[in-house]
Write a structure and sequence with these properties.
single chain, 125 residues, mainly alpha, 0% strand, globular
Amino acid sequence: MTGPSAPRVGPENSSVDSEILWRVAVVQALAVIVLSLSLGLLFPHSFFEAVGWLVGPLAWMLCAWFTAWVVGLAVGPVLVRAALTGIPSALFVILGLHWLGAVVAIGLFAAWCATMPRPLVGGAP
């Protein structure tokens, strides 16, 4: 059996599920945008200059948790992927390219999450 409804074998499959990739990318991007705008309206710029090194990664992980919940993926592996894909984003921040780093991280995060097994229809077994 092949195609999107094919069973995925093992805890992880190296093939990329394009449906999961796009779902994760869209949900993560929207979550990051909404949370960023909300925080930007609530706090002054000086707040992010002082504690952005902490708030940014925590916000990224919160968005990843939300993405896992919406898409129906296992939270633990998704959070590990989020933490690791945040590393390249941090390098972009150091170079002064914060939002480009976010775009790259979302792409990497979505691609890596797309290798996870498809969520079960109807929730947990």
